[in-house]
Design a protein that fits this description.
alpha/beta, Pantoate--beta-alanine Ligase, Chain: A,domain 2, four-stranded antiparallel beta sheet
Length: about 300
């Protein structure tokens, strides 16, 4: 497994592979968990060459967010990726990705980028879209792999791919969950003791929202939103950021309980800010994530 730290070297490495070889790409911010490894395994099965990146992107963090304390463990991450058969890991420094004089950003607009997570974290998706476009230009993957846990981020990236006619195919895999339903996240490392137990409330709340959906088809979407909110507010260690139910096509708020829909939640539990979602597809089936059978 090659560990590469410069754009020039990764682009030279990319040029070594023949045009007939399929390249898969899994971008990460490191501190890997079973969710990341699930993406890597799928990418390994579907491609001839597998590249991952580990880069904590400062452009997607707000001024009072956890950029400096975001969990990091590069030696462990590299060991895990080597065990999964990754061919190349790109680990750039910020000076490499955003050199002096850098002024060009991708700034998505509209409800998709400015509501829900976009409203709670202004500028977040500007940073996400910019770094993902840069990585796609550098790596030039045939397929790129993301998890549904970051549902709005996935939608922003998919819109950017369409808008810029990017050749990469997006592969979105279900959220991977702990045995108690908590969506796997690098920020779960912040959760200790009673906070970790309390964090289960996000999954329980989404389950309550799903139940309200199924019991009241065609009724006001606020019924499901209230079920989610009530569940979170009953947990004293949780502080709700937002609960929203949005259409997956235009990302506008849903008025009635009907597919397709994305149930979104963000909440603070102890020192961690956590997000999660359930996806209701147009055919009426739900994507609520899978329970991991193992964790590294």
């Amino acid at each position: 497994m090659r560990v590469i730290t410069t754009i020039r070297e990764i682009m030279n490495a990319r040029a070594e592979w023949s045009v007939s070889q399929q390249v898969g790409f899994v971008p990460t911010m490191g501190y890997l968990h079973e969710g990341h490894l699930t993406l890597a395994r799928q990418a390994r099965r579907e491609n001839d060459v597998l590249i991952t990146s580990i880069y904590v992107n400062p452009a997607q963090f707000g001024p009072r967010e956890d950029l400096n304390t975001y969990p990091r463990d590069l030696p462990r991450d590299l060991r895990l990726l080597e065990e999964e058969g990754v061919d190349v890991v790109f680990v750039p420094a910020s000076e490499e990705m955003y050199p002096a004089g850098f002024v060009t950003y991708v700034d998505p607009t509209g409800a998709l980028a400015e509501q829900a997570e976009g409203a709670s974290r202004p500028g977040h998706f500007r940073g996400v879209a910019t770094v993902v476009l840069k990585l796609f230009q550098i790596v030039r993957p045939h397929r790129a792999y993301f998890g549904q846990k970051d549902g709005q981020q996935v939608a922003v990236i998919a819109r950017m791919v369409r808008d810029f006619n990017l050749p990469a195919q997006l592969r979105i895999l279900p959220t991977v969950r702990e045995a108690d339903g908590l969506a796997m996240s690098s920020r779960n490392a912040y959760l200790l003791g009673e906070d970790r137990i309390a964090a289960r409330v996000l999954y329980k709340a989404l389950q309550a929202g799903r139940a309200a959906f199924e019991a009241n088809p065609g009724e006001r979407a606020s019924l499901a939103a209230k079920a989610i909110i009530d569940m979170v507010q009953a947990e004293p260690r949780a502080r709700l950021d937002y609960v929203e139910i949005r259409d997956t096509h235009d990302f506008l708020l849903k008025e009635t309980l009907a597919a397709p829909a994305l149930l979104l939640i963000a909440a603070h539990v102890g020192p961690a800010r956590l997000i999660d979602n359930f996806l209701l597809r147009e055919d009426g089936t739900w994507d609520t994530g899978i329970i991991a059978t193992s964790q590294d």
